[in-house]
Amino acid sequence: MIKSIILFAFSFTIILQFGFSSDTKTADNKHGYIGTNACGMCHKNEKQGQQLGIWAKSTHAKAYKTLLTDEANKIATEKGFTTKAVETEACLKCHASGYNVDASLLDAKFTIEDGVQCETCHGPGSEYKSMKIMKDKKLAIENGLLVYDNKEDLCKKCHNEESPTFKGFNFEEMWAKIKHDKPE
User: Fold this and answer.
1) What is the pLDDT of residues 19-31, one digit of tens each?
2) CA 102: distance to chain centroid?
3) pTM greater than the 0.85 cutoff
4) Residues 123, 146 contacting (CB under 8 angstroms)
5) Per-residue confidence band for 59, with pLDDT thresholds at 50, 70 and 90
6) Cα(101)–Cα(147) distance, rounded to whole angstroms?
């Protein structure tokens, strides 16, 4: 009987850990989201290129808030959704980070209201956030940092004809508004 209980408990733990997560951004589901403020602790100064400030002034920082508007709800209704825009996965997938992630992977300081934030593009940062790891790009990537050879393809995952407000997308023009490379 005890063996059966132990086997059940072990199986249940495995299923909970690997079987039910809806996080599509990480394959192993061990990386947690720490939030923009945690990233900003290091990425806000001149030496780092003031990435936090660039993000804060961008429409990405306000993306979630647009889903709270009457206009967004009108668009969601016109698209046939019965939920408010802020509760609709088809809207959230391009307006928020962490909406589809198991709550255990969200740091207490993480907030969905930060919209399209650092970890939306760069991956959940819990495992690569330390200075030691961030100073070694290969190690950071091994710990979940996402980097892209073609940034335009990444952007077009949301900036495309599927969006009900899409009016074309000029990558060069838009990238110039949010470019946040670390100065050499």
Assistant:
1) 333 333 333 458 9
2) 13
3) no
4) yes
5) very high
6) 21
Could you tell me if 122 and 29 are in contact, meaning their C-beta atoms sit under 8 angstroms apart?
no
Q: For residue 157, give both structure tokens.
A: 């995952």
Tokens found for residue 123 = 């991956």
DSSP state of 113: G
Token digits for 63?
A: 């993306």
Find where tokens 């255990």 sit: 104
pLDDT tens sequence across 71-116: 999 999 999 999 999 999 999 999 999 999 999 999 999 999 999 9
d(CA 126, CA 128): 6
Which residue pairs, CB below 8 angstroms and at least 24 apart, start in 157-162? 157/94, 158/93, 158/94, 158/116
Domain coordinates of the chain in residue numbers? 31-178
Q: Is the distance from CB of 40 to CB of 34 less than 8 angstroms?
A: no
84 torsion bin: left (phi>0), alpha (psi -120 to 50), beta (else): beta
